[in-house]
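Private note to self, pasted from the team thread so I don't lose it. Backbone tokens:
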């Protein structure tokens, strides 16, 4: 049976995979590391400040898992929480999964469309998955043939996919991030075929096979180096797979060489590995319960999955706006997960959801972009942000889903003086202050969506 027929025969089973997708996706997420160490490199600190101004970015997961629309990589890991479709044995499933490399042929690949959609949504930075845990490279690596550039897409002039994605977003002046998985389950020096693969770790004892481990370390360092040297200017190196540390794959050497060359000021994100190479923290699928004043980012999916999945339900524009408001008020950035289709485009349903976010940000973006935290940052449905001067404040009323915008908004503290305006239309709004309690009277006829107010805080 051909690879394509095998893929299509499994689609029915993939329905089951989609049903358990949310369970699997939430069974392993990166928690926030405990503590933060500020960088000492001046150029890195400057780039971090620029990144903190951006507030809103996109994370693209796109790979073999996109072909049938299943959870990215994890179903080939043999851990107890994994659920797989169909009647496959474990080894049979892995063989089927690896075989997707023979049918992945995104002939409609259009990174310019991706960039247009994300720019219209108001996003300012991007992270692209060059390699997930399954080891399949979305770039033309000289160190493996397990790559988009070596399969059915090999004759396409854009077979070196990552290069064209990064360049499309550079044309839009996005900050550019490179996602890379430190674990590689396809590499024989990590999951060696001599042994079974019981979990996400390398499947052998390093002390028994130091040569295997050394070859894996060199392989990983070499791939990171080729990305940093051959794929243009990056702002962020975003490393996933926190059960392997950057130190174990010579990350210091990679960063030192990169920052001394074209990647000056490169932000390193060795996720969950507390220390000098976790330049910002990345709580996954969650928002911290408090305000945090060092660099951090919540990575959250637009649907239930990181990658494309058939029939997915997407967050509404208002939901995304409210998540962004909360994260911004707490001092972070939002990295929104979007999965391109197997053909290589952003589907209309995603575009429609993001279009409303962009429209809101074009009217109210002053309350989000380039803001910083203010000590009293939350009351009820209201989130507060501040200009860098500390006196110009913004109050964002995050309208709950399926509710109607109220006629008045109240909070205690952050007492205004002088005029207060609606950012959406520039109109002045009336308010009254009794002691520390502020009551804002919203004009009638406003669109039923979250609103942002600008005012000066009373001294």
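Design output:
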């Amino acid at each position: 049976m051909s690879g394509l027929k095998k893929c299509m025969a499994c689609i029915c089973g993939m329905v089951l995979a989609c049903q358990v997708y949310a369970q699997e996706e939430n069974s392993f997420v990166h928690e926030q590391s405990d503590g933060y160490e500020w960088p000492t490199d001046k150029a890195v600190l400057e780039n971090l400040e620029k990144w903190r101004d951006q507030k809103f970015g996109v994370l693209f997961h796109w790979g073999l898992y996109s072909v049938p629309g299943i959870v990215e990589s994890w179903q080939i890991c043999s851990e107890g929480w994994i659920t797989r479709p169909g009647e496959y044995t474990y080894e049979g499933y892995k063989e089927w999964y690896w075989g997707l490399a023979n049918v992945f042929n995104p002939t409609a690949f259009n990174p310019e469309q991706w960039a247009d959609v994300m720019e219209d949504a108001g996003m300012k930075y991007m992270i692209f998955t060059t390699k997930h845990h399954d080891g399949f490279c979305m770039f033309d690596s000289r160190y493996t043939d397990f790559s988009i550039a070596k399969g059915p897409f090999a004759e396409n002039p854009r077979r070196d996919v990552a290069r064209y994605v990064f360049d499309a977003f550079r044309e839009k002046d996005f900050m550019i991030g490179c996602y890379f998985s430190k674990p590689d389950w396809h590499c024989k020096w990590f999951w060696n075929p001599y042994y079974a693969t019981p979990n996400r770790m390398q499947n052998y004892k390093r002390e028994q096979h130091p040569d295997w481990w050394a070859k894996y370390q060199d392989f990983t360092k070499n791939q990171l180096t080729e990305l940093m040297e051959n794929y243009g200017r990056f702002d962020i190196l975003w490393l996933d797979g926190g059960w392997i540390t950057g130190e174990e794959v010579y990350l210091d050497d990679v960063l030192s060489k990169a920052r001394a060359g074209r990647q000056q000021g490169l932000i390193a994100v060795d996720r969950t590995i507390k220390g000098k190479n976790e330049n910002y923290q990345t709580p996954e699928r969650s928002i911290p319960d408090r305000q945090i004043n060092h660099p951090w980012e919540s990575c959250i999916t637009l649907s239930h999955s990181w990658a494309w999945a058939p029939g997915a339900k997407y967050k509404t524009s208002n939901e995304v706006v409210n998540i962004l408001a909360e994260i911004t008020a707490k001092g972070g950035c939002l990295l929104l997960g979007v999965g391109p289709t197997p053909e290589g485009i952003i589907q209309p349903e995603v575009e429609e959801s993001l279009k409303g976010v962009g429209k809101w940000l074009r009217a109210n973006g002053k309350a989000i972009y380039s803001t910083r935290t203010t000590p009293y940052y939350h009351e009820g449905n209201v989130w507060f942000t501040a200009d860098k001067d500390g006196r110009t404040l913004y109050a964002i009323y995050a309208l709950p889903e399926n509710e109607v915008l109220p006629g008045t908004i109240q909070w205690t503290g952050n007492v205004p003086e002088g005029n207060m305006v609606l950012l959406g239309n520039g109109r002045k709004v009336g308010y009254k202050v009794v002691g520390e309690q502020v009551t804002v009277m919203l004009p009638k006829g406003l669109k039923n969506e979250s609103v942002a107010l600008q005012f000066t805080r009373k001294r």
